Amino acid sequence: MTINRRKFIKGSVVAAGGLLLPSSFAGCRSNDRVRTYDLVIYGGTSAGIVAAVQASRLGLSVVIIEPSNHLGGLTTGGLGRTDVGRADAIGGMAMEFYRRIRKYYDSEARWVHEPKGVQEGQDAMFSFEPHAAMWVYQEMLDEESIPVFKGERLVLNNSGVDKRQNRIEGILTESGNVYKGRVFIDATYEGDLLAMAGVSYHVGREANSVYDETLNGVQKIRTHNHIFPGFVDPYIVEGNPSSGILPGVHNEDPGREFEGDHRVQAYCFRMCLTDVPENRVPFEKPVGYDEIEYELLFRNFEAGEDRIPWLPGMMPNRKTDTNNRWGFSTNKIGVNYDYPDGSYARRTSIIKEQESYQKGLMWTLANHPRVPIDIREEVSRWGLTTDEFPETDGWPPQIYVREARRMIGEYVMTENDCRRVRIARDPVGLGSYQMDSHNVQRYITNMGCVQNEGNIEVSPRGPYAISYRSIVPKKSECENLLVPVCISSSHIAFGSIRMEPVFMVLGQSAAIAAAKSINDGIGLHDINYSELKVQLENNDQRVDVDTELFPAFPADREMPEQRIIFVSEPRPAKSCIVRPENM
């Protein structure tokens, strides 16, 4: 038996090419270390939980294996103000979850720090506290008695997956446990199972030319939100390149316009903050704090920026889902390039670096004398909560992995699908949120100033279809794996697909397909779509797009100039706007 060693190449396609793995795992022959199920789900994210519950309801034996000690992914990890898009594009168990959230908040007892705030006449609720989401998910899992194993990390090498021909037989975790199944689902944000199974994937941005897109690749001109509007010097000693470059800025070619690269959009933690004094913990200066990390922040204020660099979306009980905003904020741009293909140790170091940076940023905004006094006073009113994430002292246990690996499957979702220029013939769910990429890099322009690049926000102007073939690998690579999170899509299309409700939708559809495959005794690639669609609709999934109500809209290939938006005077005398003539 031949074992082909895969190489993980940043910014490139990783091809499977007939990977064969050992038929049994060394050291794991004892039956007490082997568990067998119809469906094995790796990843206790929203997609994984919904898939497990749906599979159990359809009569399958199912297990969730979660590599961390946190269950529910971002939905329970701080992202409580849901990126919905169009609510009428959400169906099935995803909408069931949001209806359960609404029911959870029906009780007056749930409203501790403010009066009851549910809106009458609505049966779903899309804003919730992290612990409320955890309560609902646990209730759903308990109803089906689904086993969940936390802290079970897949072995990240060729011995981690027992694959015979193009079928996964079982997976091995670092603890020595083996999980065998008839069908597998990779519901992780990272796509570790698909990668270890030898499935093709991509990391980074594709060139626009690859899929005939306009919003992919390097976008120095089109990036006009969340930038440095004023002229901010990148050097340690202003005006002196020989003094060195400030932290957070790279001194490398940012790439030609529309070219692909290895870079991925920035991550952050979605902090749950409150301004309720009895529930608030003031921001603390982290160990190892170095104010030079925030020199760009100070210079940005001095160049005329007058806005607080955060987006605190309100949730119940005076809590926030806090997101990145403006030029220098909670995203530590560029620190995460190694994350998708990184070892567990490398990922941990990236997570710790992001955490230290973000904690230091909050302390700086609340306390540093170079921050405008009105901003310090406002930020100081807020802090981490005492009643969320107590096991991590109020800090979110889940980093926001906005994008990592993306499978290259039977069908690749692209910008043209989001625009409904192309409509898949086999939809298993709908997306509707804007094509949204956070910034990807921070570089030095030809004008000698700092600028961010990679932020794109373009609405699809309605729902679009997500293909069944985009959640299955190529048949020649693996015929019993479904991937509802790291789906087959381009970078910019994934920017719309990557929302938690969509992951729930695709997780449910994946489970229905898995059940049909097992019950009918056929491969995932041989499922009759017409029959699958009936089952999807019987489970309240929404898959059809009304093209009369939401017609296609081709891309406007003319590039708009960057625009600078300030909320008040003074405007900076010197700006750092990237236009074709100063690229």
Task: List the defining traits of the structure above.
583 residues, alpha+beta, FAD/NAD(P)-binding domain, seven-stranded mixed beta sheet, three-stranded antiparallel beta sheet, 12 helices, 22 strands, disordered N terminus
**Secondary structure: helix percent:** 10-25%
Q: Which CATH architecture of the domain at 34-204 and 462-538?
A: 3-Layer(bba) Sandwich
> By CATH's scheme, which homologous superfamily of the domain at 34-204 and 462-538 applies?
FAD/NAD(P)-binding domain
SS strand fraction: 15-25%
- Determine and state the CATH class of the domain at 34-204 and 462-538: Alpha Beta
Q: End-to-end distance, in Å?
A: 53 Å
- Poorly predicted sequence stretches spanning 5 or more consecutive residues: 1-23, 561-571
Q: What's the tally of helices?
A: 12
Computed over alpha carbons, the radius of gyration is 24 Å
Question: What is the number of beta strands?
Answer: 22
Structural notes for this entry:
The chain is of the alpha+beta class and 583 residues long. Among the domains are: 34-204 and 462-538, FAD/NAD(P)-binding domain (3-Layer(bba) Sandwich), CATH 3.50.50.60; 273-403, no CATH class. 22% of the residues lie in helices and 16% in strands. The protein has 12 helices and 22 strands. It has helices at 46-57, 92-104, 130-144, 192-196, 208-211, 295-302, 344-367, 373-380, 415-418, 491-497, 500-520, 529-538; strands at residues 34-42, 62-66, 148-150, 161-164, 167-172, 178-186, 201-202, 235-237, 240-245, 273-274, 280-281, 311-315, 319-323, 383-385, 406-407, 427-431, 435-437, 441-444, 450-453, 456-458, 464-467, 481-482. Strands 1, 2, 3, 4, 5, 6 and 22 form a 7-stranded mixed sheet that branches. Strands 10-14-11 form a 3-stranded antiparallel sheet, with no helix packed on it. It has a two-stranded antiparallel sheet with strand order 7-15. The longest helix is centred in the middle third of the chain and has 24 residues, at 344-367. The radius of gyration is 24 Å and the shape is globular.
